[in-house]
Specification:
heterodimer, A: 465 residues, alpha/beta, six-stranded parallel β-sheet, two-stranded antiparallel ribbon, 17 helices, 59% helix, elongated, B: 103 residues, mainly alpha, 70% helix
Chain lengths: 465, 103
């Protein structure tokens, strides 16, 4: 058994290690070391907890057993999960953090002595507030993440579910939670505690169902943030520095990512939360579509264009990942490089289903990360590039975002693909993207549409180079 | 007059938000997915509370209601810790530099 002061020092150390873990992610070279710091911090925190509690009994064996069971499940998932399913995985993991926070809050409420919070029915005022906040945010994170998971997995439709008075209902429920916490603190009656948790679960569901599929990157980041605040709330209850530091880190991390995602789509955070944007893009933009002429080509034409270029920029989008075309794409790039053609990749902030998703998918296909560029790094290069190869992306290349103030995507940062000498567009059809906006690029003179499955088309191009 | 310890914890909290703010902005955008999975893993340090709850020995049997919630939370958090760190590791392994010998 070690003293409370000593264990506090160790918790501080693991908090600092967690900061270093995030710091390591500033570049791919230091990132693996960062992850190691994170693991070390976790080992220290868990070990110190065992030593602080100090009574090694049969319960300890059960704790280790449950730890191993959970760990084995986690490890199994981590090795099996395909990289395209990362968004679902992260959403699923968020739900676990949320539920764990709820469970810890419940045990603290039922057995406050174990946490030095007072006696049942006479818990310290501040602790009650802290654990209520932890439990409420945890419950919202849990049910919200479950909905996000179901939507990303396709079990639930990505289209927004909206009904009248939805936001008013959320507001009422939110106020109700505050009232319940107030009565919980004044009466110490457990029925208020349970009701508050149930309502929080409900709010989590109601918050996420109106948000459409296109806004999922924001939702995942937002839930990431919530899981952090839930952890911090519990950290205050347990008076644990490691948890407070981690909660604050994760909370601000998720908030920043939501901000970046919103900016990438030029949507205000508030309008994302209010929801109703993007789903099954059945929006009727078909009226003007068929009139305009479109140049389409086949794999041979594309191969010819690519072979005679001296520089090529690849613009991948989520469609590429859906078609599993990333490996074929890499092969194509390899053969282009053999012909001394300069190839780089341009990744839009919202390419993919979560922040940085496209980078992971490209990395998985062995694309070196120093050939992959962010929007602001590469946007000026399009003008000096011979061919832009757009595969599975759509809205993020639409010049309408720069020219037409009436367009719903006006103001969204887009890749200046149209400045290239020629554009190759691999797409199944002329259908609009998530935003439901017709892409003007399809009808440009220097655009050649390649109507096919992304993977098949890329493979055919490789054969023809 | 003495300062409530809560204020100290609150100070740590606020300062950590600032640290988080600056550290996260320095994360390269290409690593945002690993950032999310690793933050996921570290937020599971909530397991600390779960262990305390599970090992609490106020009741005579080790499977009192509050202990059971502790055990359940341990399983959930452990899935997250191992899953989160390992999947991050798996992703980071894939980030490689351009090979010098062009194939």
């Amino acid at each position: 058994m070690i003293s409370a002061n000593l264990s506090a020092i160790f918790y501080l150390i693991s908090g600092i290690l967690f900061i270093l873990a995030l710091r390591g992610l500033s570049s791919p070279e230091t990132s693996r070391q960062g992850n190691f710091f994170g693991i070390l911090g976790m080992i220290i925190a868990i070990t110190v907890t065992f030593l602080t509690v100090g009574n090694f009994s049969t319960a300890t064996i059960y704790v280790l057993l449950f730890l191993v069971v959970g760990g084995a499940i986690g490890a199994f998932i981590a090795f099996k999960i395909p990289m395209t399913a990362m968004p679902e995985l992260v959403a699923g993991f968020h739900s676990l953090v949320g539920l764990a926070a709820v469970f810890v809050a419940i045990s603290a409420f039922l057995n406050p002595q174990a946490f030095n919070l007072g006696l049942p029915g006479n818990i310290k005022f501040a602790s009650l507030i802290e654990m209520s906040i932890g439990a409420a945010v945890g419950a919202i994170t849990f049910s919200g993440s479950i909905i996000a998971f179901l939507k990303l997995r396709g079990i639930m439709s990505g289209s927004p579910i909206i009904f009248k008075g939805q936001h008013f209902l959320n507001l009422i429920l939110g106020i109700l939670i505050v009232i319940l916490i107030y009565f919980l603190c004044t009466t110490q009656s457990d029925s208020f505690f349970w009701n508050m948790i149930v309502i929080s679960f409900l709010i989590g569901v109601l918050l996420i169902i109106p948000i459409g599929g296109a806004d999922m990157p924001v939702v995942i980041s937002m839930l990431n943030s919530y899981s952090g605040w839930a952890a911090a709330g519990i950290g205050f209850t347990l008076e644990n520095t490691a948890l407070i530091i981690t909660g604050a880190l994760v909370g601000s991390s998720g908030a920043i990512l939501s901000y970046i995602m919103c900016k990438g789509m030029n949507r205000s955070f508030f309008s994302v939360i209010l929801g109703g944007f993007g789903g099954d893009s059945n929006a009727d933009t078909g009226k003007k579509k068929d009139q305009k002429p479109v140049k389409s080509g086949n794999a041979e034409d594309a191969a010819f264009l690519l072979k005679n270029a001296s520089s090529v920029i690849i613009v991948p989008g989520y469609g590429m990942a859906v078609a599993q075309a990333q490996h074929a794409l890499r092969e194509m790039v390899d053969s282009l490089k053999k012909n001394d053609i300069k190839v780089s990749y341009a990744v839009h902030p919202v390419a993919g289903r979560m922040p940085g998703h496209m980078n992971v998918l490209l990395a998985e296909a062995n694309v070196p990360y120093d050939e992959v560029f962010e929007l602001d790094e590469i946007n000026n290069d399009f003008a000096n590039t011979d061919v832009a190869f757009v595969i599975g992306a759509n809205d993020v290349t639409n010049p309408v975002a720069k020219t037409d103030p009436q367009s719903p995507i006006y103001g969204m940062p887009v890749l200046d693909v149209e400045k290239c000498k020629s554009i190759l567009f691999v797409k199944r059809s002329l259908s609009p993207g998530y935003a439901g906006v017709d892409n003007e690029l399809f009808y440009r003179d220097n655009t050649m549409m390649l109507f096919a499955d992304a993977k098949k088309m890329t493979e055919d191009i490789v054969k023809n180079i | 007059m003495e300062i409530d310890p809560f204020i100290f914890r609150f100070s740590i909290f606020i300062l950590s938000i600032f640290v988080g703010y600056y550290v996260v902005w320095s994360v390269t955008p290409s690593l945002h997915t690993p950032l999310m999975s690793v933050t996921n893993a570290i937020s599971s340090v909530i397991i600390v509370g779960a262990i305390i709850a599970a090992l609490a020995s106020s009741s005579s049997d080790i499977f009192g209601t509050s202990n059971i919630f502790g055990f359940l939370a341990i399983v959930l958090a452990a899935v997250n810790i191992f899953g989160g760190f390992l999947v991050t590791q798996r992703m980071l392994q894939m980030y490689k530099k351009k090979k010098k010998d062009k194939k």
